[in-house]
């Protein structure tokens, strides 16, 4: 490609509304432009990267034996009604009617469509396992799109869905996909970790996220210092630690006027929050009459509720919803002053986090406005219904596999593999004839990669103050050739053209920067856009028979003979 | 690819709801499945073809110097309001609101989005010309989707938009795109014709459609027997032929009770429809008070109105709309019995087609219910406002270039190139700084290919009673290898595996049909899906050192040595 015929839409200034570095650099490098909130046009510089990412994904998916399909973006609402998600899915699911008034959705995902396809096309166990994938546009009407293409409303996803006669077959394909994802992200040049993930309400026995480690990540990823254990914090189990000591203090009521938060109360009482419990009152599952009970959750004062874990508790409604002021009033409870004492007696289930359950002589609300209790002890002063893992782990916690302690880093989820089980095949009646001639509900897996997000994630991991440092496999161009004073020195342009032709013929993706710009402008653009190799051709070098080479991460350029240069580029 | 791991979703029966052959065969070959009206999922067999078509298009577009971009499917309505099309575009434009109530459309085309991009990114005449293209999903809410992917609601399009400082530059890029389209359709193996097309209300000086000739086509394409002239019938000019003879008959009123159509009247009067005129009363352009006048169009009885031509007349409203019954009553006119006599005197403009204008002694309505007039003559009996080209040409008409006569064939439009001029750049204010430092409104072209439609069009041209006959460049597989009795004869399977490996290594796209099916089933599937080359490996051939080769169009198979086989495949 000749730069003079390409769109260099580079920006010198950092755009105001871009919070994270990848968003800033993608705008500055002229890779994307915002069309509307959460909608981005990919410019030629960005499309080159996107196409390379897609090609690697397609190649590895084909190699894994998955078969490519292509499903519509617009999907009939009726399928979503069959699966139950037309109601369940929140406003991220964009619903609309066509000219005839028939209801449709813009596909945020394709489980329904592929399961509908499978129930029509798959007839016999002999056809299984089968794994279908596509690379297609998705739409999720995010309430607050942000971070550029990292969390946009329209985005490109590689989604795959596999079909099996049993769990063992699913596990086999799942393992193949796990390895395929590792291959893909390795080829994309990403520093990533497969981590255990929550399987949500679907249950199923396995789910892994592929997390790219970067400070701007929206996920907390937990690692063991001593083992391979890695999990999303949503999933990481907080182990029991220690045993409850016997009570030593008497329960005492103290006035704590207007001290509603744990921090306030503990400062006021000059106590450590680790020696306190905090209450979270949430909606329980509605009974047959439609009444929703209130459930009391208690955590140690310094711990954070893990909503996903709470939602897994059979008494707690999902999505997690806090009790209303009216419900608290009815129960004669004052927010900020609630303790576990007497709740079970009032028929309020009390679920205590493991860490809170081993406290003794602790501080809790007194169930009177502006009062707390000190010296509270479980059983003696407060009954509980159940002990449960309710909290997020923190750095230094024991690793759930018993080896080492936990560290926490930020991650960007770029892939997710998931054992769906029979959720969709049951809802949509997707069966095949089994070996015994009887219908058999298929078992499913699903496997996603955020294709557009991968580009942003790669940048979050690879940049410096000059701009992007693309991994060579996905760089918009692999090599840039800059003839010095091309418009005055025909010899350098001639030499540049020859090198351009030679390198292109060898299969390199080369940019010849023949623009009528100062060298400084060209160098800035080439660094900003993250092109891995730069070759400058000047009159001096021509006379000496050398090329000025600089790798994108190098501090200084070096003069290389042609042979040395080609050796360098081959490596 | 091993067939045992592929999805062969072939059907023996022709599906009921598929009218055209490509739709039938794409369903039968397991290339597509209907998800909802006008929405199709592409199965693995179809995606392989689609990907090959896309790759050829992308390669040739890149070669032409166009730059690939990727624009969102969802577009803010505000841009369509700027261009005026939010109101103008009919219900094919799917409009919806997002969760915040902001109006959007599902993009049926991307002129607005690309012009918005260009007005932000293109600053100087030095950057031009620039040609952007994308391969992206489009949505048009067709009132009656049909013919499978030929006229679906969601489809894939390659659309390109070029930007220029002047018409001369546009013409240059237009010519490049014309040649690029020829290259693309040649590589796709299509029998196509570039034909002149109407430029519609946009005006502009040039537009060509690329028409694939096939009986199922929805367009009429007109050719000269003696020259290169080719045009869509919408565009083809009907020349003046002959001169008007002097009147010989007196005007006579005859009773024609209930004879409303030209066919009825002429049969009733035992006259040739060529000796009659028919009236079409349509809406004129509204005046400043908002009143729409009625305009009378007259054509020879055997001719068909060309609506596009009529819409070009400055007095006629577009889209063409017939006068209402109320309007006719007010004017004291009876549908079916309208003649030109006295209309101009009633202030009804009378526009006469060229062929009708040279009639004398003709039959027309008498402007009385159940009466016609014979021996009518222009000027003596009926004034007219203007003579205009209003009709569709018919076979045998003179070619507009004066060379030969016209033939008419059916065509499927697979591509369209169009000189847009400044319609969008003016509406959206897309300017660059010109050489003189002053803002200059850019001139635009646009260039589309219906990517999914191309696949159907290729099939419409290439099939027989056994199924599809794909051009090799876009076949799902180039070669199929069938080991006979593979499950009983390890030797044939072994030989097939070796040949499979060898041909794959040579870069051929090979299917090894290792399915546990009877040879007849395999042969039918391979013929149905249009794979160009079939190689059967049996025990006899193995012993003789030959392979049984059959091209998809061949009547019989031939036994070839390995060298002969490879020669054949190379050719």
UniProtKB/TrEMBL annotation, chains A, B:
The answer to keyword DNA repair applying to this record is no
Q: Which Enzyme Commission number(s) are on file for it?
A: 6.1.1.15
State the source organism's domain of life.
Answer: Bacteria
Q: Which UniProt keywords apply?
A: Aminoacyl-tRNA synthetase, ATP-binding, Cytoplasm, Ligase, Nucleotide-binding, Protein biosynthesis
Q: Which GO terms describe its biological process?
A: prolyl-tRNA aminoacylation
Q: Where do the Aminoacyl-transfer RNA synthetases class-II family profile domain residues begin and end?
A: 38-471
Family matches, as Gene3D superfamilies: Anticodon-binding domain, Bira Bifunctional Protein, Domain 2
Catalyses which reaction? tRNA(Pro) + L-proline + ATP = L-prolyl-tRNA(Pro) + AMP + diphosphate
Gene Ontology molecular function = aminoacyl-tRNA deacylase activity; ATP binding; proline-tRNA ligase activity
Instruction: Identify the SUPFAM superfamilies for this entry.
Output: Class II aaRS ABD-related (SSF52954), Class II aaRS and biotin synthetases (SSF55681), YbaK/ProRS associated domain (SSF55826)
**GO cellular component entries:** cytosol
Where is the protein situated, by its record's location annotation? Cytoplasm
Class of enzymatic activity (EC top level) = ligase
Q: Which InterPro entries match?
A: aa-tRNA-synt_IIb (IPR002314), aa-tRNA-synth_II (IPR006195), aa-tRNA-synth_II/BPL/LPL (IPR045864), Anticodon-bd (IPR004154), Anticodon-bd_dom_sf (IPR036621), Pro-tRNA-ligase_IIa (IPR002316), Pro-tRNA-synth_IIa_bac-type (IPR004500), Pro-tRNA-Synthase_IIa_type1 (IPR023717)
Entries under Pfam families matching the protein: HGTP_anticodon, tRNA-synt_2b, tRNA_edit
Let me see what the UniProt entry remarks about domains: Consists of three domains: the N-terminal catalytic domain, the editing domain and the C-terminal anticodon-binding domain.
- Family assignment from sequence similarity: Belongs to the class-II aminoacyl-tRNA synthetase family. ProS type 1 subfamily.
How does this chain assemble? Homodimer.
Instruction: Please explain the role this protein plays, according to its UniProt record.
Output: Catalyzes the attachment of proline to tRNA(Pro) in a two-step reaction: proline is first activated by ATP to form Pro-AMP and then transferred to the acceptor end of tRNA(Pro). As ProRS can inadvertently accommodate and process non-cognate amino acids such as alanine and cysteine, to avoid such errors it has two additional distinct editing activities against alanine. One activity is designated as 'pretransfer' editing and involves the tRNA(Pro)-independent hydrolysis of activated Ala-AMP.
**Name of the molecule in the record:** Proline--tRNA ligase
Classification lineage: Bacteria, Pseudomonadati, Pseudomonadota, Gammaproteobacteria, Moraxellales
């Amino acid at each position: 490609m000749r730069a003079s015929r390409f769109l260099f839409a580079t920006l010198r200034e950092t755009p105001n509304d871009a919070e994270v570095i990848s968003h800033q650099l993608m705008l500055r490098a002229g890779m994307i432009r915002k069309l509307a909130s959460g909608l981005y046009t990919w410019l030629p510089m960005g499309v080159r990267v996107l196409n390379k990412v897609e090609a690697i994904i397609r190649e590895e998916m084909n190699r894994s034996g998955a078969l490519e399909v292509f499903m519509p973006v617009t999907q009939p609402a009726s399928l979503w009604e069959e699966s139950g998600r037309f109601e369940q899915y929140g406003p991220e699911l964009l619903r609309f009617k066509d000219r005839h008034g028939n209801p449709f959705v813009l596909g945020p995902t394709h489980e329904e469509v592929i399961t509908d396809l499978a129930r029509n096309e798959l007839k016999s166990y002999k056809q299984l396992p089968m794994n279908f994938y596509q690379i297609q546009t998705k739409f999720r009407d995010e309430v607050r799109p942000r971070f550029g293409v990292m969390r946009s409303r329209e985005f490109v996803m590689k989604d795959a869905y596999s079909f099996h006669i049993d769990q063992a077959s699913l596990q086999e394909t799942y393992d193949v996909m796990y390895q395929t994802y590792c291959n893909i992200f390795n080829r994309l040049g990403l520093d990533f970790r497969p981590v255990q993930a929550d399987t949500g309400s679907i249950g199923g026995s396995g789910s892994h996220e592929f997390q790219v480690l970067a400070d701007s990540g929206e996920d907390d990823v937990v690692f063991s210092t001593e083992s391979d254990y890695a999990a999303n914090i949503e999933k990481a189990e907080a182990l029991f630690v220690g045993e409850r000591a016997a009570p030593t203090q008497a329960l005492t009521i103290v006035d704590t006027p207007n001290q509603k938060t744990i921090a306030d109360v503990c400062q006021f009482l000059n106590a450590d929050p680790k020696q306190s419990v905090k209450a979270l009152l949430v909606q329980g599952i509605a009974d047959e009459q439609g009444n929703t009970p209130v459930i009391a959750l208690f955590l140690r004062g310094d711990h954070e509720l893990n909503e996903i874990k709470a939602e897994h508790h059979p008494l707690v409604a999902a999505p997690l919803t806090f009790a209303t002021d009216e419900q608290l009033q009815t129960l004669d409870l004052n927010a900020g002053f609630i303790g576990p004492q007497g709740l079970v007696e009032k028929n309020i289930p009390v679920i205590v986090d493991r860490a809170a359950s081993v406290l003794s002589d602790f501080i809790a609300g007194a169930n009177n406005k502006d009062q707390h209790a000190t010296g509270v002890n479980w059983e003696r002063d407060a009954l509980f219904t159940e002990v449960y893992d309710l909290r997020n782990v923190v750095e230094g916690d024991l690793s759930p596999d018993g080896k080492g302690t936990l560290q926490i880093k930020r991650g960007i989820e770029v892939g997710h593999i998931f054992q769906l089980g029979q959720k969709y095949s049951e809802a949509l009646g997707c069966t095949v004839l089994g070996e015994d001639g009887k219908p058999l509900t298929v078992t499913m897996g699903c496997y996603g990669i955020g294709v557009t997000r991968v580009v942003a994630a790669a940048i979050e991991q690879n940049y410096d103050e000059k701009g992007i440092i693309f991994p060579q496999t996905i760089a918009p161009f692999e090599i840039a050739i800059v003839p010095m004073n091309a418009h005055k020195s025909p010899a350098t342009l001639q030499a540049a053209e020859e090198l351009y032709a030679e390198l292109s013929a060898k299969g390199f993706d080369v940019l010849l920067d023949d623009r009528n710009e100062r060298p400084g402008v060209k160098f800035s653009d080439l660094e900003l856009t993250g092109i891995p190799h730069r070759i400058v051709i000047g009159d001096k070098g021509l006379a000496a028979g050398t090329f000025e080479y600089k790798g994108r991460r190098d501090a200084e350029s070096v003069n290389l003979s042609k042979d040395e240069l080609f050796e360098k580029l081959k490596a």
